[in-house]
Every structure is written in structure tokens, then in C-alpha cells.
Amino acid sequence: MNNELILIIEDEPEIVEIIETYLAREGFRVISAGDGPTGLSHHQRLRPDLVVLDIKLPGQDGYEVLAAIRRRGDTPVMMVTALAEDLDKLQALRIGADDYVVKPFNPLEVVARAKAILRRTTGHSPEQVLRVGPLAVDPQAYRATVDAGSGPMSLDLTPTEFRILAHVAASPGRAFQRTELVDACLREGEALDRTVDSHISNLRRKLAGAGADGMLAGVRGVGYRLDVPHGR
């Protein structure tokens, strides 16, 4: 399983569902937006590892979104679009796209290209183990353990709890807003801020039971942060 967060900016729900399903099967975390402005908002707030971007979008087209992303930084972007002309592809590559896939596409090819982009841009395979103090989160094996001195103890986590833990473990010490955790880690049917609090409460209890009490800290007025315990 992978821990990378992929943002899909696409206004056709069927296309979003196809790409999201295949990426999720590989363990990627996925968030989507149906128009350019919402996509840019998600990009700024969630800082995804990869953006899958259509060109024909309401609000702002894909070229404008790509240019805005490039002004912000170097987030890799893969264009997935029905525009097959060489001029369209050249314009996207000139603005800064990392890859260009033409619809209709093979979903497996999109996944393979996404993995290749992430390998190139991060300099490592997406499946590395995340380590924060005594905590180890293995996205590939979908396993989290705590080594409190007597050997690793596995945490019995629900899928949502694992997604939250993996998300915060990827950036230890950073404060995450509740809304960010909702968008990145919760399924649509449970997407409420207070639902995050419930999952966090369960995670804290399980971490404490494994000897990692106090790692998942609340940040007043913001949300939550994963800290390295003192002395580790």
C-alpha cells in the first residue's frame, strides 16, 4: 500500500470514479475536485503528492490550474484529457506538466504512470515505512507498530484510523486541521469534523495501550499533531 495523497481535478464523475478506484486499490489516498478553483483550494490546503488534472474544467481550465500550481511550487502534475492534438500536449508540457495521458485511457496505465512520476519526483519508492519515534507505519503492508522497548506491538486499527495515522505520520510535528483530515482520510459518508475527533480518540487509546501515550496531541483551535515522545 502507498501513503501518497493524489488530487484528481476532473469534472466528469465517471472518470473520477474510475481513476480513484484504481488508485485506491494500490493504496493511494485520493481526494477529488470538480472544478478549477476547488482543485486549487484543495492543492493549497492539502499539499498532495501528485495532481491528476483535466484541461476542460469549469471555473478555470486545466492550463490555468497548472500554471497556478507551478507558481506555488513543483507538485508533479499528470494531465488526463480528451485533447489529443500535439499543440495541446506541447502547451501543457511547456507550462510544466510531468506527463500527458489522452482519453480514453487504460486505468492501469494511469496508475503505472502515477507511480513512475512519484518515483522520479520523490527519489524513492512510494512504499517506504514511516517512522516517528517508537511508531512505524508501513503503508505497503497496511500495518502500524509501536516499539516501546519490549519489541514491536501491532496496532489493531480500522481503515480510517490507519489512514489518519499514516497521514499525520508523513509530516510529524505539523498541525493538521480537522477539515484537512476529513478531506484526506474519511470516506464521504462519515465526512464530519466531529467524526475525526472520534477516530482520534480511538487512535490515542490504542497508541497509549501500546506504550506511545501522548504522541497524538491536540492543537487548540486547529486540530491535531503527531509528536515524537521526549527522550526518543
What does this structure look like?
- The protein has 232 residues and is an alpha/beta fold.
- The protein has 2 domains: 5-122, Response regulator (Rossmann fold); 130-226, Winged helix-like DNA-binding domain superfamily/Winged helix DNA-binding domain (Arc Repressor Mutant, subunit A).
- Helices cover 42% and strands 21% of the residues.
- The chain is built from 8 helices and 12 strands.
- It has a 5-stranded parallel beta sheet with strand order 2-1-3-4-5, sandwiched between helices. It has a 4-stranded antiparallel beta sheet with strand order 6-7-8-9, covered by helices on one side. A 3-stranded antiparallel beta sheet has the order 10-12-11.
- Helix 1 packs across helix 5 (107-122), helix 6 (159-169) packs across helix 8 and helix 7 (178-185) packs across helix 8 (193-209).
- It is elongated and about 60 Å long.
Key phrases:
single chain, 232 residues, alpha/beta, Rossmann fold, 2 domains, 5-stranded parallel beta sheet, 4-stranded antiparallel beta sheet, 8 helices, 21% strand
CATH topology of the largest domain: Rossmann fold
* DSSP strand content: 15-25%
SS elements, strand count: 12
Mean pLDDT: 87
The amount of helix comes to 40-55%
CATH architecture label name of the largest domain = 3-Layer(aba) Sandwich
Q: Total number of helical segments? A: 8
Shape summary: elongated
Low-pLDDT parts are: none
Any idea what the CATH superfamily of the largest domain is called?
A: Response regulator
